[in-house]
Amino acid sequence: xxxxxxxxxxxxxxxxxxxxxxxxxxxxxxxxxxxxxxxxxxxxxxxxxxxxxxxxxxxxxxxxxxxxxxxxxxxxxxxxxxxxxx
Length: 86
Known about the structure:
The chain has one helix at about 60-75; strands at about 5-10, 15-20, 25, 35-40, 45-50, 80-85. The relative contact order is 0.25. The strands form 2 sheets. It has a 4-stranded antiparallel sheet with strand order 2-5-4-6, with helices on one face. It is α+β, with helices and mostly antiparallel strands.
């Protein structure tokens, strides 16, 4: 039996979503931005990692919408999502 959590490393431009409580998301930020989201009722969480080219907004809105949509596909309700921007 493996007692260690499954670590999913999220690199620039990726989005990861899981409803598996044994999954831990990891990323390394420099000038990038990451948003972590969690729906406590559906027990679904996710993270995105996006680079802001030249300090602009880039595709951050698209990445956020994709992440929220993916969480909804896992059973999350958009109004219940808790978020943290790093």
